[in-house]
Amino acid sequence: MVSTGPDHPTRDVGFGIYLHWPFCAAKCPYCDFNSHVRHAGVDEPRFLAAFRAEIAHTAARTPGRTVTSIFLGGGTPSLMQPATVAGLLDAVAEHWPVAQGAEVTLEANPSSVEAGRFRGYRAAGVNRVSLGIQALDDASLRTLGRLHDAAQALEAITLAQSAFERTSFDLIYARPGQTPALWRAELKAALARAAEHLSLYQLTIEPGTPFYGFAAAGKLVTPDDEVGRALYDVTQELCAEAGLPAYEISNHARPGAESRHNLLYWRYGEYAGIGPGAHGRLVTAGGRIGTVTERSPEAWLARVEREGHAVVETETLTAADQADEFLVMGLRLREGIDPDRYAALKGRPLNGNRIGMLIGDGVLERLPGGRIAATAKGAPVLNALVAELAA
Q: Residue ranges of the Radical SAM core domain (predicted)?
């Protein structure tokens, strides 16, 4: 059992640390993450000092925890010097005990990695790398605004696998002009290079991004729902055949190679969000809270230097909030959810008649031990499924 402070239905899931490095070499036109380009460079020692301060502040709010996973996300954390990564991980270890064998993941882009830097990250304590490949053909990479080409992507995969036992890479499908046949060929090539884990995301057009404006103007056309479903079906089929079945809607792994940090989110565990624009979920004596930090890197930095942290929003989550979040996150997983845990959060059980109706419709199933999960038919319509269960 992992110690996570006050008694709460999420106490046994684990305690993770998310560190957000918000800087990128370029902003991709599809991206709505909190990422920023700073051509003048970044004062890494100054930001590291601020991260250390916010880590100390968060640790004071979360005594008695043992860290089970750390995730350095972004942005592009692989733009950091290995010494900066080492400083971040050392700061975490100074304030919390870190479980033996804890997963420590760093996101990297193929255009910002080389063998020496990977060795430096490994020496700093990183034991898992997630590469933002996104596509394996040069035309698509240009459309997606990526700074690498397919050859660099494949080289980065080889470098990562030579430096780390655990690796993953991301691809985006349902791209403009993509057909099931094209995706089938590309995914087969990816699976031939994947060691243990793949994240495969359907392209979504997010408000506020350049792609949103292009789509609105008719300059960007993505596959329709029917083709999108066919692409999804190809994804499930090929990954299962290759021994990397879906354990979450967009994530595929060999059994035992799942991302433990991301499982913490989906199983509704406890995690600290540190850095510009980071979100956290913490269990306090007053209940479970959600935290959000200042989004702007420079405003975050100034606020931390002034106040010791840059948490700008703290919300006490109601029983209904927690149950809804648990349902939304947990039903993304192939393992589904434990209805008893939902009832412990909500204060009342799920509606048995509604569960029976959804099982009859073929979108929900009961698993051994009483868990419920979305079926292959239910996974593509998960939002509607969650809304029906939560009603």
A: 5-245
| CATH number of the CATH domain containing 213 | 3.20.20.70
- pLDDT at position 136 is 97
Does residue 211 belong to any structural domain of this protein? yes
Percent of residues, the chain, with pLDDT higher than 90: 90
On average, the pLDDT of the chain sits at 94
Q: What is the 3-state secondary structure (H, E, C) of the chain?
A: CCCECCCCCCCCCCEEEEEEECEECCCCCCCCCCCEECCCCCCHHHHHHHHHHHHHHHHHHCCCECEEEEEEEECCHHHCCHHHHHHHHHHHHHHCCEEEEEEEEEEECHHHCCHHHHHHHHHHCCCEEEEEEECCCHHHHHHCCCCCCHHHHHHHHHHHHHHCCEEEEEEEECCCCCCHHHHHHHHHHHHHHCCCEEEEEECCCCCCCHHHHHHHCCCCCCCCHHHHHHHHHHHHHHHHHCCCCEEECCEEECCCCCCHHHHHHHCCCEEEEECCCCEEEEEECCEEEEEEECCCHHHHHHHHHHHCCCEEEEEECCHHHHHHHHHHHHCCECCCECHHHHHHHHCCCCCHHHHHHHHHCCCEEECHHHCEEECCCCHHHHHHHHHHHHC
